Amino acid sequence: MRWRRFWVFIVGLLLLNIIVSSIIQSASQPASVTIPYNLFLDEVNGGNVINITATGDSITGTTRTAISAGSGQPSAKNFLTQRPSFASDNLVATLIKDKVSILAEPPNPPTPFWVTLLLFFGPTLLIVFGFIYLMRRSAAALGGGAGGILGRFGQSGARLYNAERPDTTFADVAGIDEVKAELVEIVDFLKKPEKYQRLGGTIPKGVLLIGAPGTGKTLLARAVAGEADVPFFSISASEFIEAIVGVGAARVRDLFQKARAAQPAIVFIDELDAIGRSRSTGARLGGNEEQEQTLNQILTEMDGFDPHTGVIVLAATNRADVLDAALLRPGRFDRRVTVPFPDRRGRLEILRIHTRHIPLGPDVNLDLIASLTAGMVGADLRNLANEAALAAARRDAATVAQIDFTDALEKVELGSERKLSLTALDREKIAYHESGHALLGLLQPGADPVRRVSIIPRGQSLGVTVQSPVDDRFSYGEDYLRGRITGALGGRAAEELVYGIVTTGAESDLRQVTAVARQMVVKWGMSPKVGVLSLADEDGPGQPLALTRPYSEETAALIDEEVRRICEECLRQAVALLTSNRDKLDALVHALLEHDTLGEAEILAVTGIKAPATLQPQ
To answer: What span, in angstroms and rounded, lies between the C-alpha atoms of 385 and 392?
Structure first.
């Protein structure tokens, strides 16, 4: 702001100088008239001209009596005229004869000295004074010295949370109660430290929140800020790094100085992996590399020679595997809290929070939606609720209905609906493909219930079959995994059974079954020939890429053979099940071609298959 006022002042002075100069110049010049050249000659011959000044062909002068260019024109004793280039009159002799004073000036006079000085030295002086001004501001910002040259670069830019007007509290956090309990204890310690110190306990120096994107790490930090009655400084790790070496470390020092001045206080660093990567990973350009300096300063501030017990560091990351070991040792981040994916009960609580300001219709079943959204995190569920509200608004509805959530779920998972001009044969092939998936989902023992099947193109998919478990699964049996592979191959099996050929529609299915079968062999020991071995490639923090496989070429060939065997066995089973239930497959196809989309109850009614008692559609 001060720099802006400085430039406004300079520009104002320049404008004032131009205006004043124009006024003075116009005031100093007497009034004059422009006359034709022939009138000038007449005035000379009549003895009315006193003197002239010639600058090239331009002539100015003074007369004894006022003259004008014509009737009705202003008159004056000072005049201006232009001698034509083709004139052949003997003007000089006439002027001398009539005793007119003659003065000649060069047509291109030299530039005044002060103008030359301003043009050549003005910009240089302006740059020098501007640089001096910036250096003085930098010194004032950082207290002078060498660090002052960095100016505002050395300030951390951390945002101080206003605890008096919290916008997020622990009431806004759901589905991760265990993690919330850890942070509630931190807040309680800051409010009542004597409760914990009376038995010799000390407050943790740092708490590291680890979890996938969208699981609620930053939301938890905002909730801590809303609950704690202490200053809360929030900053992203990427804000420390600057092109100038040493700025990152200066910003870390500035941040902790502010926190210590306000202690007890909490410092929150988001996306810690941006500066906390292991120093043993990759090539370094030198010992003064900016990221390493910043990391070293954080290590020193958290637990160096000058420890500070009144400042707690709260950090979040989704890449804990790449963090430097010095960050993770006790005394720095004493607690590492994993923020997990929410289970069904947690998703239900999250949905209740995100729909508390949305008018829901009487048919909305949040528990059913929670069961359909396995694998979704809090950010996904918030987006789902928002998409459902937008879908209801597009229908001009007063409330959000269950169908809005269903459509929003398909849009979030598969993309927006596409209007494709499909032939009748293409629609029939898509219907058989999706019916194959759906029917095998009903026939496989222990398979996840089929919730919805559609042949409406969305995103990159021409159709979709939605299956979701009643309750979350945390352990998978070999029979369940084989059922997953068999169900995923149901579309290809239906095409092979009905048309005798296969299409490209099973591309995504083949990628899925290959990944599951390979993990069964190399990761979970579900192959008798390979045995109970874990042969999965593990990339550690010091190994960004696996250069060699942890097994021989013979074992690799055996793995490929076992993966192929599992997939082919499941495909044969899929073909056999569909062949013995061809009537149900055809009935489901005809219903799909007629209605485009079928819900769980409609699928069971068309096929005549009864769902288990615990899986009855809601």
So the answer is: 11
The Cβ of residue 597 has, within 10 Å, a number of other Cβ atoms equal to: 16
User: Please, which residues have CB within 8 angstroms of residue 522's CB and are 6 or more apart in sequence?
Assistant: 530, 534, 535, 536, 559
Q: Which H or E run contains 60?
A: strand 58-68
State how far the Cα of 161 lies from the Cα of 166, in Å rounded to an integer: 8
Residue 467 and residue 439: Cα distance in Å, rounded? 11
Assess contact for 458 and 416: CB atoms under 8 A.
yes
- What are the angstrom distances between the C-alpha of 529 and each of 251, 395, 552? 58, 58, 15
- Token digits of residue 241: 């790094």
So what's the pLDDT on residue 21?
57
Contact 615, 449 (CB under 8 A): yes
| CATH number for the domain harbouring residue 275 | 3.40.50.300
Determine, yes or no, domain membership for 81: yes
Tell whether 215 and 312 lie within a shared domain. yes
Same domain, 124 and 207: no
User: Count of residues for the chain?
Assistant: 618
Count of CA atoms in the C-beta half-sphere (13 A) of 17: 6
- Cβ 49 vs Cβ 85: under 8 Å: no
45 with 78, same domain: the answer is: yes
Question: Considering the entire predicted model, what is its pTM?
Answer: 0.65
Longest alpha-carbon distance in the chain: 133
Q: Give yes or no: residues 561 and 606 share one domain.
A: yes
Q: 221 near 208, Cβ under 8 Å?
A: no
Residues 132 and 146 in one domain: yes
Please state, as a whole number, how many other Cβ atoms lie within 10 Å of the Cβ of residue 497: 17
Domain extent at residue 29 = 2-105
- Of 414, 439, 467, which residue constitutes the final position of a domain? 414
Is there a domain that residue 419 lies in? no
Average pLDDT per run of 10 along the chain, which is 618 residues long? 62 65 54 79 80 80 80 77 75 76 69 63 69 63 44 53 62 80 80 76 81 84 78 78 66 80 81 78 51 78 61 84 81 83 87 89 88 84 91 89 87 78 86 89 83 82 80 80 90 89 86 91 88 71 49 87 92 91 90 86 84 47
Q: Which residues are catalytic?
A: 434
Residue 543, domain member (yes or no):
no
Which residue has tokens 């000649």? 104
Q: Give the residue among 494, 406, 508 at the shortest CA–CA distance from 452.
A: 406
Question: Considering only CA atoms, which of 582, 391, 602, 382 is closest in space to residue 497?
Answer: 582
How far is the C-alpha of 455 from the C-alpha of 598, rounded, in Å?
A: 9
CB 97 within 8 A of CB 47: no
* Residue-level pLDDT at 569: 92
Task: Identify the domain boundary among 272, 304, 338.
Answer: 338
Q: How many CA atoms lie within 13 A of 333 on its CB side?
A: 23
Structurally, the chain folds into a number of domains equal to: 5
Read off the CATH number of the domain in which 92 is found: 3.30.720.210
Do 489 and 611 fall into the same domain? yes
Q: Where do we find the tokens 């009144």? A: 310
CA dihedral 429, 432, 437, 443 (to 10 degrees): -160
Same domain, 384 and 349: yes
* Residue 400, domain CATH: 1.10.8.60
Pair 582, 469 in one domain: yes
pLDDT score at 72? 67
